[in-house]
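Quality-control log, excerpt.
Job 1 of 2 completed; input and output follow.
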Amino acid sequence: MNAIEILFWLFITIIFYAYFGYGILLYGLVRIKEIVTKSYTVINPSFEPTVTFIVPCYNEIDILENKVHNTLQLDYPTEKLQILFITDGSTDGSQIKLENYSNIEVLHDPIRRGKSAAENRSVAQAEGEIIIFSDANTVLPSNTIKNMVRHYINPEIGAVSGEKRISQSEKENAAGAGEGFYWKYESMLKRFDARLHTVVGAAGELFSFRKHLFRPLEEDTILDDFVLSLRITQAGYRVMYDPTATATETASANSHEELKRKIRICAGGWQAMSRLGSLFNFFNHPILTFQYVSHRVLRWTLAPLFLLCLLPMNIYLASQNSTYFTILYAHITFYLLAWIGFYLEKKEVKIKAFFIPYYLTMMNYAAIAGFLRFSKGKQSSIWERSERKVSTTI
């Protein structure tokens, strides 16, 4: 076996591990841990600390009323719940509309400094022991707050992440079909991550934490939820995952919008890696570092790069050894399916079987584009909202 063959199989192994192998290994480790330690999750449904529920929203007047109604139906003692909507930079009159609700506090600054700056300001005004962030475009069940705070009876828990869900129909586009599949798999990994040790990066759509653990974020932070949750783990706390605390949102309107969102996330991933250097020190955080590298770092770094290299390597090896022709056919078939998915979406033909290869290819393209954007310093920390499908659910 020559050097190119060795690299070829090494690249395949790392790509497989990043997307599927880690999930298989994680499941096995969790099963072993729970058999050996007989560990269990500590919760207390009657535990009711004071809570500040914060909704950052920028020019969201079209969906604001739905979000307000959804927030007000959350089941939690009113004397222990503070609700804050922060509308910094909004020019659509959101803050005026919100002033009609006496049980909602509104923070507004006419200058838009980005989501991280808004969150810093809102936490400084928060009175609750537990802070919950929720995006304006998400729908939450009434028991959300109770399901999240019950974990804080355990002093090891510094944060709790909810589960993001994508609302989609049977005739979904490529973005919806791919995003829905991806988040189902991600949710499964997060459940097992939490059972092994901790969630590695919380879902910003629904995320809670102990107020005293909050440290102001740099205002240019791109992935505020990711950085905040990992800094809590750096401090020695665990981030729990509660799949019963769900945040449902519609999928991106189309693949262009989803690609725009993915590129931003990947650029933010590179920024986060540059600021969370201690997480690469296995001796400081052995389990956390294993989870962080396996679940996050490989997907943003080596996997996309190796995937880019595999096709030319496969072509070369097939020209030298006929054994590699079968792999080359499978290789080409995958990209052909991805191209068909792209083509069908342009024609507005909905066949999900083609959309998953397309979505996976788009994700890896986004990782490379995100790195280039981060390296050139061209990714703004101010969120450029992706267009979402319209939903009538409240």
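Job 2 of 2 completed; input and output follow.
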Amino acid sequence: MTLTLPSLTLEIIVDTPIETQPELISDNVTHAPAAETTPTTTPVVYNAPGTPATFAADATTATASAGGRADDPAWGLTAGFGIWFASVGLMLLGGVAALILYFIVRPSAMNAAGLQRALESDPLFILLNIAMTVPIHLLTFGVAWAVVTGFGKRPFREAVGWSWGGRFGLWTCVALAIGLWLFGILLATVFGGQETDIDKIISSSNAARFSLAFLAVATAPIVEETVYRGVLFPPLARAAGMKWAIIIVSLMFAGIHYVQYWNNVGVIAAVTVLSFALTWVRARTGRLLPCFAIHAAFNGIQAVIIVAQPYLKTLIPTQPTTPPTAGMLLGAFVRALSGLHI
């Protein structure tokens, strides 16, 4: 028997019983077979490609690489801004659809006065507008999913970094959301401002109030985080650098909400702080899941406040002996509770 191929050494030793080699021990050299049959190539065999050890190492490397894809997306800057424009356009389309449904239900309001009343205070139009936001959010997410996955060719969660990042686990994100909410309350109370569109929606009807609370938790966080920090941020950071990407994405996210809070400086300041914090977390961790958790927890607090707002209003003193400044401050605080960000 000739052992000329090192790669076959282990196989021959395993398949050939010791009893079939009497000629190797016939010279009373008892140590020769042991020395000759010592599998010196065992480390090479067990670390060869395709073996369990190498497969585990490759899996670890692949997992790390998969996590890094969130900062090296397969889509470019044009697609990122395209998704953003699509999200804005779809929201406008939802408003038009709500107005059409309103005129179908109330054809008598199809005039200038009826249109003005619908846009300003009609509870039915407000409720229809909120209801149309849900399918618009789902459609926006579907468009973003198609771009991120290449219509199902790439895994969505790996592409956007849908995992926890470093120290930003669930409870850290919840604690950060509470801190941002309290800081936002401070800003909104100190700077103050007039009644916002969100305040009008909340006070229009119970149906609108509960629908808005549901929207704030169920669809808004996942859609907004996917569009801004999941799809738009990575190619922008690759093209313009991390700092500029944080500034641009944060201002774009906050700017969309300025339309809702244009007459309330305090709420605008709070929304801006929240936007920069979320984008910084995305840049710091390279992950989207912590941003979603913070956003959802923040909006969850808001949703609870929105539902409980009628009871909170009873905290505002109405006695004539109450100093006007105290009543104004408490009123501003309650308005801030219910309208920081949706």
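Post-run check on job 2. The chain is about 75% helix and 0% strand.
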